[in-house]
Amino acid sequence: MRANVYIVSAPSGSGKTTLLQSLLKTFTDLKFSVSHTTRLPRQAERNGVDYFFTERSRFQEMAERGDFLESAEYYGQLYGTSRAFVEEHVNSGRDVILDIDVHGARQVKEKIKDAISVFIMPPSFAELERRLRTRRQESDEAIHRRLEIARSEIAFCRDYDYIVINEVLEDSLKALEAIVRAGRVRPWRQQARIEEIIASFGGTA
After folding, report:
1. Which CATH architecture has domain 5-200?
2. When you count CB atoms within 10 A of the terminal residue's CB, does the N or C end of the chain come out lower?
3. Rounded Cα–Cα distance for residues 126 and 122 (Å)
4. Domain ranges (residues) in the chain
5. pLDDT in tens, the chain (205 residues)
6. How far apart are alpha carbons 45 and 84 in whole angstroms?
């Protein structure tokens, strides 16, 4: 049974990471897609868990072979979603969730037409800025850069199947959980079981 691919995108500071961490605790059978990157590991990051840390030459070879569902360059480093990683889990019946930006989402949707896309939206620009500054992890320049990127990304929300406005964390998590549950009862996900039930009524699928 082929499973679902869920794409989740959001401007930095929207609360996406917190939501996904909670979602993965609720759905322990949901597989998080680990991306490849050419950047060096940060403190406490583990290869194969946070990222597959990949030498640039190998990454470029993989890209040339078409090994990535999507790839991009940020601040001089390459990032990509492994086609084999996703297909292995999906084809074995395990749902996969991708945490990628709006440009990567478009690339994936071109290749996986039935992927379910979700955009996490902050309640306002002012609230997004407040959240970024509250973290106190970056300089004013870095925050300004993230806000400018957010301005360019926000319009892409119209391309997504679902939009979750992350104003109240608990409500947003419930919405995400509902999206995952709804994806699991789509007819093609249950085709074998549906045919079995129809046959028990003496009919044919």
Report:
1. 3-Layer(aba) Sandwich (3.40)
2. C
3. 9
4. 5-200
5. 679 999 999 998 899 999 999 999 999 999 999 999 999 998 889 999 999 999 999 999 999 999 999 999 988 899 999 999 999 999 999 999 999 999 999 999 999 999 999 999 999 999 999 998 887 777 888 888 889 999 999 999 999 999 999 999 999 999 999 999 999 998 888 888 888 898 889 866 4
6. 22
